[in-house]
Amino acid sequence: MGAFVKGGIKDKQEDFAQVAGVLHEMSKIISKRSDDMELLTTGQMIDQLKVGEVARNDNDSNTIFVKRAETGGIYKCFKDGTTRESAFLVSAFVDSKWRILPNYVSFEDAMKALKDGKTVELHIDGKDDLVVQDYLDPDPIREFCVSNCTFKELLEGKWTIEE
User: Fold this and answer.
1) Is 96 in contact with 42 (CB distance < 8 Å)?
2) Residues whose CB falls within 8 Å of the CB of residue 49, separated by 6 or more in sequence, listed in order
3) Which of 3, 134, 135, 142 minimizes the number of CB atoms within 10 Å of its CB?
4) How many CB atoms lie within 10 A of CB 4?
């Protein structure tokens, strides 16, 4: 806090405003990350898992990945979504907490979806997510990229399409 203090009442008000701004940005990041960490019960995961999506249980000693198939059934799978076998309702499955893994797409697929009126997000580890809602508005990407990402991260990054 001492680095912000310059002296005088006006300077202290500016310092306070600057610190408040930093704290506000930090709280947005923390709340965004805690939202990303939401764990689901098995019932919630079954209700929310869409066709093609993969979920992972939150048990490091007995990790289970499942995927919803085109038929609507839920199957055990590998992390990449390759189906292994039917999922059985044993305690390791039923008692687990779950996280639905993001379905990442390429930059090209994200831009096509954006053109079709969908919202897309760029996820870069350790940085705020970029949310783009309008294909014709370059400002969100321009402002984000100037301070937060490289050209490589933009083109090769982890994009998701929001429903």
Assistant:
1) yes
2) 55, 66, 67, 68, 74, 100
3) 3
4) 14
Q: Per residue in 90-112, pLDDT tens?
A: 787 888 899 999 888 998 998 89
Amino acid type, 90: V
Closest C-alpha to 157, from 120, 117, 113, 118: 120
| Residue numbers of the chain with a pLDDT score lower than 70 | 1-37, 126-128, 130, 133-148
7-13 long-range contacts, CB within 8 A, separation 24+: none
Residue with tokens 């055990």: 76
Question: What pTM, to 2 d.p., does this model score?
Answer: 0.57
Residue that has been written with the tokens 């979806």 in this structure: 113
If you compute the radius of gyration of the chain from its CA atoms, what whole number of angstroms results? Answer: 21
**160 exposure class (CB count in 10 Å sphere: 0-12, 13-18, 19+):** middle
